[in-house]
Amino acid sequence: MARGAAVPGENNPMALAADLIYTLLTAFLYLSAALVFRNPGASSSVRWVETIGLPGYLAMLGAVFLLLCGIRAVTGWLRGPAAGRTAGDLLLIPAAAAFGAACVWDCRREMPAGEMLYVTAGVIAVLGFFFYGALKRHPELFAPRKQRMGYRAAAAAVCAPAVFGAAFYAYHTVLRYRVFSASCFDFGIFAQMFEYMARTGMPLTTCERGTLLSHFYVHFSPTYYVLLPFYMLHRSPETLLVLQSAAVFASVVPLLLICRQLRLKPAAAWGICLVYLVDPALQQPLFYDFHENKFLPLFLLFFICFFLAGKRKRMWVFLLLTLGIKEDAAIFVMCFAIYVLATGAADLREDAAEAGKMRRQAAEVLLLAAAWFLGAVSFLQWKGYGLMEGHYSMYYLPGEGGLLSLARNIAMDPAFFIRNVFDADNVPYIVYTLGALLFAPLIVKDLRRLILAVPYLALGLMTTYPYQHDIGYQYTYGPTTLLFLLLILNVREWEAFAKTVLCTTCVCAGILLSYTYRGHGYVHYAWAYEANGARYAQMEQVLAEIPRDASVTAETFLLPHLTDIPELYMYQDSDTPRETEYYVLPTGTEHRFFLQYEELGYRLEREESGISVFRKEALH
Prior knowledge:
By secondary structure, the protein is mainly α. It is about 60% helix and about 5% strand.
């Protein structure tokens, strides 16, 4: 203990004064949080202050202060003066968290997410300051003898929030589908594909490109077949939403095992897992339909886990599952393998023989991943639609394409590359991803670790395609998974105190940033379903009565509820009307089809619950 520091429980004036100041600050934060929640709009105007007055405010502050002093005294009487002092000081942490939540909640009511983001970032910085101050006063909490949590206890402590998170997101995303807020892109195409797989074994769709084709011509994703047995147990589009929520939150299992492999203390591993469970870049895309990317954390982390454990058979199984998610999944595997080779596995194993074995294994993984990537890309260019090079079109000269041209032009004009990476449009994405982790993944002792951040740069920052640097979409899963591995590698070298401050602040940051991004959107679908459940049931009934062997063109939000129809197309008002037996559109819209359906030979067969069903007599 530093010279001059107050000994816990020691009755000296300096220690008592510090205790009183901390207690008063805690009381101030609790009262401030309560008043903000009690007076919506407090963050935008001080007019509400006149309803309380200074005497009333001081009386409330004094009451909270005395209550906190009572808690200190009772705890000290029951468990000793040192415990009372510690408990009293640590009350500052929930007080600061409550005040931060109140500020973000009140501001978000009136401000859009784009403007609100900077307020939230400031609140997180303030919270980190308070957490640091509260924990710094009690170094005895971080003594080795206090670290009693084992990995079994850590696993048990992670299980409950993981199950809750999976159930919460599965429930609300299913309700999103039930209130007709899921669209053809990107839910109807996958719902129809799985129905085709269940019937024929082939990943076919008609609504993805307006013709019957294999989805693998768009993205090479054979891992979908691993999900097919689960879909067959309950053949409904809702099953897909439940599966992806379960997969995202189940990824905390291999994450915890990786922490153990990398010799992180159980308490720190538990903290990292909690940060993962509330990370906005992993939560928010769940509300955007269904995508193969959302299975990346589960399979990629299990691959890394078994790689570190030296369990080759399991490692190869999960390596193939990871590569089969999508053609660009190989990028994450290759970056991990290159990182192992670049560091000589010294980050992962101290024993030279084990490190050498890991290097050989990493070389094998790199070769297989590179071969898979080239094979998948060649397949897409030969049989399919090729790579989505349009996302990086700004780096190509007219008539160019391919990875070699991309790399050459970036190397020759790095200034253009830097401009795109640090464009203002990327700032919110950086705050939501790296900011949610307090930029700890970038605090490296060995710069070679930053190889793991290459996918974050390549797939998130260097493109002007807006969805790739927006946490509301599926592109965040692979880069964020490697950021968590980088986080573990970095923080395992930190002291217990620093790990605690980081994890505590990051948990609050994840919750606040998620709310900033989505606001009340979490429960919007539940409210809508509760208020209009009967109407949605009637809409489902109308759609269920359309013959399943007919050809149908449907509006984008109605289409996912018709995906058991083999010949199904999405209606686009700008296209020439397609000749199908049925058109299914929302009533009262301004679609061009409504103006000319009689000229096209259709008649209105049914109009109910906001749905208009048109049938072409000549084809029926």
